[in-house]
Amino acid sequence: MRKWNLVFILFVFIFSSAACQQDTIEPYEEETIGGTDQQETESENAIDEESNKSNQEITSNKETGESNTTYNEEIDRSGYALLRPELGSKRQFQENGMAILSEEVIAENKEYLQLIVTLGGSKTTEVYRWTPNEITLVYQDHYQEGDEKGILENFSGTDFVERYVGEDANWEVIGEDVSVEIDGKDMKVLQVYQESDEVVGHTTKKTRYFAKDNGLVFERIEVVGDQGYISEITIDLQ
User: Fold this and answer.
1) What's residue 31's pLDDT?
2) How far is the first Cα of the chain from the last one, in angstroms, to the nearest whole number?
3) What pLDDT does residue 45 have?
4) Per-domain residue ranges of the chain
């Protein structure tokens, strides 16, 4: 009888020891697993945040049109600014079916727009103050090396060569939202007109059309007098 009691006591001791070991191990295993899950979650959250940041930066760049030729400024595209040609656009103009000049929009900010104009083998850099309230040619000069990288970052123009619309404009608005056909396409345009005596002994009559997202789409120049002539150029929309 005492032998069985001894066996029973030994069995209880072994069982209790095993249970204690199990109780000791389980919390450690749970803590270790829990810590690994937390580290993995934190790592995944960090990756998601970095990805979201990158996506936001990409979206921001697309929305602002940021590039090496524009300077990350929000542009108010209302009023006359609706007529701005798009950044990066390259436009060909033709006369009597023949290409004669091209314009490339290479830089813009909230106030100015820069073009490179090519006529034959000659290039000209032009800057317009193009806002909701005016369209003004403020700079026009022979192309200089490096102009294609943009000159607007530190540009400050006060004088103007031509002011098509806005306060003290030297052109007259003769039509707004006028329906016309340009290169086989119906468009709504702003029409401006100017008369001058820039050619001695002659009257020079100029008409320009501006269209939404395209800028200049048509120009007519008529020189009245002896040996006068008419020239019409139209944007090529094909």
Assistant:
1) 38
2) 111
3) 52
4) 79-235
Question: Per-residue DSSP letters for 13-51?
Answer: HHHHHHHHHHHHHHHHHHHHHHHHHHHHHHHHHHHHHHH
Measured CA angle at 173 (ends 132, 85), to 5 deg: 45
Q: Which two tokens stand for residue 131?
A: 């806002």
Strands 98-108, 215-224: pairing is: unpaired
Rounded CA separation 25/14 (Å):
17
Assess contact for 117 and 66: CB atoms under 8 A: no
Element at 216 (helix H, strand E) = strand 215-224
Can you list the alpha helix ranges (DSSP code H) found in 65-158? Answer: none
Q: Which residues contact 85 (CB under 8 A, 6 or more apart)?
A: 91, 103, 105, 113, 213, 214, 215, 216
Residue 40 amino acid letter? E
Find residue 224's DSSP bridge partners.
203
- Count of C-beta atoms within a 10 Å radius of residue 54: 10
Can you read off the two tokens belonging to residue 155? 């540009």
User: What's the predicted TM-score (pTM) here?
Assistant: 0.69
Consecutive 10-residue averages of pLDDT for the chain (238 residues): 40 42 40 43 48 39 40 80 95 94 95 94 94 95 86 82 94 97 95 92 95 97 92 93
Surface-to-core class of residue 235, CB atoms within 10 Å of its CB (0-12 exposed, 13-18 middle, 19+ buried): buried
* Calpha distance 197→68 (Å, rounded): 41
